[in-house]
Structure formats: structure tokens, C-alpha cells
Design a protein that fits this description.
The protein is an alpha+beta fold and about 150 residues long. It is built from four helices and five strands; from the N terminus they run E-H-H-E-E-E-H-E-H. A hairpin with a 2-residue loop joins strand 2 and strand 3 (about 60-70). The radius of gyration is 15 Å and the shape is globular. It starts with a strand and ends in a 14-residue tail after the last helix.
Length: about 150
Amino acid sequence: MDYEIRKINRKDKNNWISLYCGYAKFYNVPMNQKILDTLWSWLHDKNNVVNGICCELEGKIIGIAHYSTMPRPLKGEFIGFLHDLYVDPDFRGKKVAKSLINHLKSLSLTNNWGGIRWLTHSSNKTAKKLYDKIANNTGFELYEIKRH
């Protein structure tokens, strides 16, 4: 399949909402319009709070990735951080996720990042099969303190 990887545009909003809601559902995270509106505004903010790319096939986006630049103090450099990656279930196993990650690798060179990092849940076996092939598992565990 011949995919186009490109920046998420304003015309993609409805298709993007469908994919992002699928992502939230996959992780059992409640989604609402306020969250969608906030993320959508970040994706189009001139300060690049969060950036978005998509994989398009025949005029429809079938995968999305959100990322940002973040500092890596121990190395004195910036890296790319992949926040979200989601592929339409009908297109899984067709190298969409790998294409999106490869695009991030090219952005890493363009932006002079020292690398790219991301998290996934330990139960996400399908994604981990890909990630274990293309990246190193650092062994770090995530901790979180919630405000509420």
C-alpha cells in the first residue's frame, strides 16, 4: 500500500476525532469534547505544544501520532517524545505504525533530536512486538501522582 505520512491538517478533524476516540477507548480512558477541543487546539498552536502526523491512504487518515520535543537533561539534548500512536483496526499489521515511527525518525534528524522515546502499557502485546523490533526497551517504569 502506498501511504502518505503528513502533518495533521484542519480538514482532518472528523477523521482524527474518530481515530483519537478509538485510541482513548483502547486504553479505557473516558473522552469528551473538552479534551478533544484542547488537543485539537494544541495540534494547531504556533508554539508547537503538541504536533501531529497522520498516515493517509486514498484521502482517509488511517493512523495518527502525536509528539513533542522535550529536553533530556542527562544528555544535555532534546529528544522527540511520542505521546500517542493509533492505527485504524482495519489497517493493523500493514506497516502503518512503522511508517509513522519511521517518519518520526526522519523528524529526529531534521530537528537534531538525540532520539525518540515513548511509553506503552505492558498489556499492549501487539504494539510491543513492533517496538521490540525497532527500539530498545529501557527498563524504566512509569510512576504517577494524580492531582485528584
